[in-house]
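Quick note —
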Amino acid sequence: MKFKTYLRYAFFTLLIPCIFSVHALALDPEEVAVIANKKVKNSVLLANYYMGKRRIPEKNLILLSMTDTETCEREEYESKAIPPVRKFLDKNKNIRALVIMFGLPLRISPPRNSPEKTDKTASFDSELMLVKKKTYNLNMWLPNPYYLGFKNQKTSLFRSDVIMTSRLDGADTATVKRIINDSMEAEKNGLKGKAYFDARWIEPGKIEVSGYAFYDKSLHETARILSESKIIPVILNDGPELFQKGESPDTALYCGWYSLAQYVDAFTWQKGSVGYHIASAECTTLKKEDSQVWCKKMLDNGIAATIGPVGEPYVQAFPVPALFFSFLAEGYLTLAESYLVSLPYLSWKMVLVGDPLYRLNLKP
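Predicted structure written out below.
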């Protein structure tokens, strides 16, 4: 997608009616189903905790019985996850979002009979976004029909095939409860702090770019959009070095790249903070104690929502920062909705960790 293409979609009053039907403009608790692993006591307890806090109906709990390791086999996903979730959705047509709880797998291994060159390790979450679709190609990714960059292009999926999916997860149960509580507190009292964007190069000007340059330029554009909105102080780093320790206090929003699986402890995360790091392996684990992947470390240190891949996604699979943060900061769409319209591909690697109902309330 050309960089200038999605700038036309930054005008919310024009965009939103095109994205969702009128009844679907605001994600409600009644439209959220929560998925827990009944083999893991804390998974069910956390599901009940979250549902109580958000007043999600008790009937919207889906219990699976499957491995509690971070990786499950494709065959287990197809036999133990798909049938009960699909059955529930068939009976509850109002459900628009799924929440995967602590205790369920993070990724799905390739089918046992996959050709050697097929890259089909996928995130549990990304596959679940297509749980309603009976069959689809398991080789590589599938274009997301909700992604604004594909707005005028024909895709192999229909919007009716897709359901929003996020995850409430982390190293331990305390982290998950903190995510829930911090998100709700920030909604009520306002998310205070600063936005930090860590580009690597000086903005190249009005030229069309692709690949890494596209995402780097998108970070510049995100900083400019939020600066002009005057709803949050913005700090842009366009040098080759990342923000270093102590250089990003009071962080409310963040996006940057590149430091592969090597978190840089530059941030003090505000309650309700949201951010992600564009690199290839940043959500390969949320549990391993010695891991330095960005998703895990950001959650460990206090962020409320983040995004990352379970394996090599290629840069063009990441949510486009200018889209994601523009919609999120405007406060009209929830976290899950902002992710949905900025995410290029499904049945792939990406994971959204956070409360799908979280709606930013930025107060200058």
